[in-house]
């Protein structure tokens, strides 16, 4: 019997399976999985292929010297890129707003008055309604003494704005309960002598008046046009516990649109130009009208233009073709929200601005796989596999469906959905044995990007949020999981996770910075997965199904790294259930799960002759 290895070079991982071929058929021995080196389908893949082959042989207990053949897939380079365009911006000048959420504001309620510097408080007359502005460096005992003295003289103290983190200390020592906001970083820039409102909500609640445009109109006596102008301020203050709004006559408040650039979509019969600012729905609607997409290009000088040019140049570099010959084969647009600093705020305020995320994909048929195969053969022979032959085994889609059919309970007609990092690939196998394929832009990398953008967290943390469930550390000895169940610990939890939302990582609890609640983070995670994987699954299946009718598909097998996700298969299966499709995560050869389909298919194809 001959010892052989099938190798699948993917965008993110390289998978291998070792087997013995003989008259009795195929005896699978073991498998290996390593990260792909370089761009799929290029000479940089050689290191990854060698590592995968060695890993498969190691799990098989076979020696490299006994290896006779290595079958590699016809790995066509696929390069994808991402761009994020913000299409609105909250702009506030003349220090109009302090939208702030310190951990421990003081007092509670709503106070309205004129801003007065703490040093000028002695000059206030009885009956004056004031909001006291206290600079950084003034001790809390001095502040509380000054406020009480003003109250004794009959000054109507309505609230206070502090630079120090002293709100609770001052509130506990002040004779009248008033709302106090502290930790205002640019307290020295708060305009004086202006009408202002301070609001602090009770613990566990959020402000109601200053986060409501009509509440602001009531407080400041605004007309309809002025109310329209301040509505961005109300939106920026939504969901926080304390805030200050100062009305300055010369202040400018606007929610302006930023030119996001345009993207040109060229089909077989028409060319459409869409402004990215119109949103994802308009872009995808235009794409559907001109499908199949022949090429796309973005407006020069914008994020979209840079992204489309970059993916084309990268493909030209790896495939050795002229950049002018490279075409974008598909793109996916997703509406999202991005936290952005409010320009003109005084305490690091942020507002969720509308944005569009775009994923684009280019693909070429000029992959240098012959050179890759020869380089792999030379490397393995030099390592001790003196008689090895490296063969390009077949079309990737056919091999994927052949491997997927080893999943127990499947049959033709069958569609394989490969949920990868940069693209979502689909392959359909009919009862006659013929196959059809489609590749659409957007997969796991885009989901990570959306989570990072909406939550304002680093990319590596967003990747962890994507991959694992959440929990809230409610004490030093128990977690409340996102499904509502409680998990107890015999040992005390690390102090840094106490009262924090954490990711249930495989090795440790990972705290998530910021003050966003568990439900909010969970919603962002699931929505991002739905916008990318569910939308792309339906797009791909409609393109590949006979006459675009999903009811003509019997089985859908999910493959790839994202098929191992704890909720993506469920989301996709729920979306396909109305069409009577049997959908689930693949279990290649009944042992490998959603991995190793192409590698196994390569071996099976050779055994079948």
List keywords for this structure.
609 residues, alpha+beta, Nucleotidyltransferase, domain 5, Ribosomal Protein L22, Chain A, Glucose Oxidase, domain 1, 4 domains, 7-stranded mixed sheet, 30 strands, 29% helix, 32% strand
Could you walk me through the main structural features you see in this protein, from its secondary elements to its overall organization?
With 609 residues, the chain is α+β, with helices and mostly antiparallel strands. It is 29% helix and 32% strand. A 7-stranded mixed sheet has the order 7-13-12-8-9-10-11.
The strand order across the widest sheet is 7-13-12-8-9-10-11
- Number of helices, where a helix is a run of at least 4 consecutive DSSP H or I residues: 14
Q: What is the domain tally?
A: 4
Largest sheet geometry = 7 strands, mixed
The CATH H-level homologous superfamily of the largest domain: ATPase, nucleotide binding domain
**Ranges with pLDDT <50 over ≥5 residues?**
none
3D shape: elongated
Integer-rounded radius of gyration: 31 Å
Structural class call reads: alpha+beta
CATH architect. name of the largest domain? 2-Layer Sandwich
Q: Total number of β-strand segments? A: 30
Our estimate of the beta-strand percent is 25-35%
**Under CATH, the topology of the largest domain is which?**
Nucleotidyltransferase, domain 5
N/C terminus separation: 15 Å
CATH top level assignment of the largest domain:
Alpha Beta
Chain-averaged pLDDT: 87
Helix content: 25-40%
